Amino acid sequence: MSCCDLAAAGQLGKAGIMASDCEPALNQAESRNPTLERYLGALREAKNDSEQFAALLLVTKAVKAGDIDAKTRRRIFDAVGFTFPNRLLTTKEAPDGCPDHVLRALGVALLACFCSDPELAAHPQVLNKIPILSTFLTARGDPDDAARRSMVDDAYQCLTAVAGTPRGPRHLIAGGTVSALCQAYLGHGYGFDQALALLVGLLAAAETQCWKEAEPDLLAVLRGLSEDFQKAEDASKFELCQLLPLFLPPTTVPPECLRDLQAGLARILGSKLSSWQRNPALKLAARLAHACGSDWIPAGNSGSKFLALLVNLACVEVRLALEETGTEVKEDVVTACYALMELGIQECTRCEQSLLKEPQKVQLVSVMKEAIGAVIHYLLQVGPEKQKEPFVFASVRILGAWLAEETSSLRKEVCQLLPFLVRYAKTLYEEAEEANDLSQQVATLAISPTTPGPTWPGDALRLLLPGWCHLTVEDGPREILIKEGAPSLLCKYFLQQWELTSPGHDTSVLPDSVEIGLQTCCHIFLNLVVTAPGLIKRDACFTSLMNTLMTSLPALVQQQGRLLLAANVATLGLLMARLLSTSPALQGTPASRGFFAAAILFLSQSHVARATPGSDQAVLALSSDYEGIWADLQELWFLGMQAFTGCVPLLPWLAPAALRSRWPQELLQLLSSVSPNSVKPEMVAAYQGVLVELARANRLCREAMRLQAGEETASHYRMAALEQCLSEP
After folding, report:
1. Which residues, in sequence order, are bridge partners of residue 622?
2. CA within 13 Å, CB half, 680
3. Most confident of 322-336, 440-454, 468-482
4. C-alpha to C-alpha distance for 548 and 591, rounded to whole angstroms
5. What's the whole-number mean pLDDT along residues 40-52?
6. Helix (H) or strand (E) holding 408
7. H or E segment to which residue 184 belongs
8. What whole-number distance in Å separates Cα of residue 570 and Cα of residue 586?
9. Distance in angstroms (rounded) separating the CA atoms of residues 12 and 113
10. Distance from the CA of 100 to the CA of which of 174, 410, 524, 711 falls in 20 to 30 A?
11. Pfam families attached here (predicted)?
12. How confident is the model at residue 272 (pLDDT cuts 50, 70, 90)?
């Protein structure tokens, strides 16, 4: 068998590669070809390699390239099997006069022929060839050697066929194909364009696994693509806009890549473009915004101008798409624009180290207001049949981001939309699984076939909570929310989310958004307690909420790192207890006693006596746990002290319970041990309020305070009401 015969036999693989182009009539004629039948019989009966080579050559001559159908291809496989190709791929000795890669080329050609059958492409005998096939992609040799080029093409044919099977991407990643493809692309040898195409497919199918197995190689490709993008002056830069989102890592993007990407985008978006040129650039910018926030935009004048340009372009696109009724909306582009608007909202509300100057912020708020008006206009047209569409979810998300920061503008339009928002949030809450899937679909719609940056919350309520917190302070919006049943929905949502933080659940894996959502719910309920106390008394959902707060606080105050949530729960529970004081659950039950003991713990541990150098007297100071978060905590603490004070006369058992906890005695002891000048007037007022009510409510409390030098301490701090109360019998 000569080298030329081997090359001819290799044409069988090419016949298989072009099988998709064949016509049914040719296939039927081929299956009735008596010559082919005879040669297939010879192939089946071959006793050694030479006979198999000869039979393969005969089959090749009987079958014209491109005229082989799947059935005949399978019959050839049945005649050859995997043993012969396996030997060809692993043999190290070629016939005299043949290059050493010719046998391997024939083996790969046969596999390429077989892999055009999806069932064979998933065969273990093909899958275990993935490592050796991957090595062919980067093998060195004469780039003009036709046999080598053919072998590379066949290797890509095999790997692409495997990638098209259900578990193929996983097998390719495990077999080192991702690294081989990266190296093949970076080497820019023959077939490097095929390497990039297959890489794109694998990243789209299994992004996380690809990065886990080949992060250094993928980052090298990203660097190359970013540099090409920054330098490109032709239409290739628009093609790169579509590719680059797939190559952004799930972790940190290298700074040099960010510089190149920003520079390339600045040149593109600063030019006059058609929509097909501009849209991929906006989507790439949105992907970067999700992955990196504003960190990829340089500080200084150029960066602020670029960011302002991005947000302005995004707002224009949103208005053009949503203001005209009946216009077909390019949902992927508009959703990407939402992401850029969200970046604009964040930068406009940032007080320190913002990229934007004040005049730019004013201008952007104005254009974003117009774009949000278009979003509201669109949502008002959404019927029940569209509520589960990802684009509606994306539109609610950007509206929620806007309302979290701005509720004074567009107030009339927002109030008009509130009934829809409550119904929409309720629908998605009741179908939570579908809502989570919607979040993933939005990510896909907006950016790329992969999950972008931080995971978007999967429920509409969490998106709307900050805005609703602001709106419940205002009479008009609050009345609409109450009328539409928002408080009841929020109570159910709070209880559901609370379950995720209860014992038996691993809170370490919960996203921060769960705890932030619980805190925001508490703020909304606090607003309702203050502005709509009648609602708290009459709606049964708040009784269930109160029961949950009472049973949960004792464990919560003991948990490290959750003090802010505990403050919210304690303060809300104390305020609600004033309104629900006649409830049987608050009449000294174990749950109510446990709750108030935990509330006292929260209120009493905020301040300590701290010695100061060069002074004989200590000063009142924040305890270490409270010190770092006091800016967020102090309003809740003062409100909690006020609420506890209000509960004492309403719950006769509370004063004796406080006395048993030794809080009034320890509070007086603390005040007597520090300099009165170190205690701010508002602290004095808060402490006096609690001590006076306890003293008035219970004789034993008064006696305990007197024993703790209460009258003298009251005099030092000019607590006239406490001093008078303790002077009475």
Report:
1. 607
2. 8
3. 468-482
4. 10
5. 71
6. none
7. helix 177-187
8. 15
9. 7
10. 174
11. Neurochondrin
12. confident
Separation between Cα atoms, residue 239 and residue 554, nearest integer Å: 58
**Cα maximum dimension of the chain:** 123
Angle between helices 192-231 and 236-243 (to 10 degrees): 110
pLDDT at position 231 is 93
H-type alpha helices, 501-629: 512-531, 533-538, 540-556, 563-579, 590-604, 624-627
Q: Are 318 and 334 in contact (CB under 8 A)?
A: yes
* Whole-number Å distance between alpha carbons of 48 and 87: 12
Q: What is the DSSP letter of 484?
A: T
- Given a contact cutoff of 8 angstroms between Cβ atoms, the answer to whether 136 and 155 are in contact is yes
Helix (H, G, I), strand (E, B) or coil at 642: helix
Could you report the per-residue pLDDT of 1-20, keeping only the tens digit for each? Answer: 444 444 444 444 443 333 33
582 versus 44: the higher-pLDDT residue is: 582
> Closest Cα to residue 176, out of 188, 166, 184?
184
Amino acid at 84: F
Q: Which residues contact 275 (CB under 8 A, 6 or more apart)?
A: none
Q: Which residues contact residue 455 at a Cβ distance below 8 angstroms, ignoring those fewer than 6 apart?
A: 439, 443, 511
The count of residues in the chain is: 729
Q: Could you give phi then psi for residue 618, rounded to 5 degrees?
A: -75, 170
Q: Picking from 447-451, 580-584, 653-657, which range would have the lowest pLDDT averaged per residue?
A: 447-451
Q: For residues 147 and 104, give the distance between their C-alpha atoms in angstroms, rounded to a whole number.
A: 10
What token pair was written down for 605? Answer: 């541990």
Q: What is the 3-state secondary structure (H, E, C) of 226-263?
A: HHHHHHCCCCHHHHHHHHHHHHCCCCCCCHHHHHHHHH
The residues pairing with 674 across neighbouring beta strands, listed in sequence order, are 618
494, 461 in Cβ contact below 8 A?
A: no
8 A C-beta contact, residue 460 and residue 435: yes
* Residue 25 in tokens: 């009539």
Tokens for 515, please give them.
Answer: 């705890």
Helix (H, G, I), strand (E, B) or coil at 375: helix
Distances (CA, A) of 490 to 127, 287, 511, 528: 52, 32, 19, 12
Question: Quick one: which of 39, 55, 59, 37 has its CA closest to 47?
Answer: 55
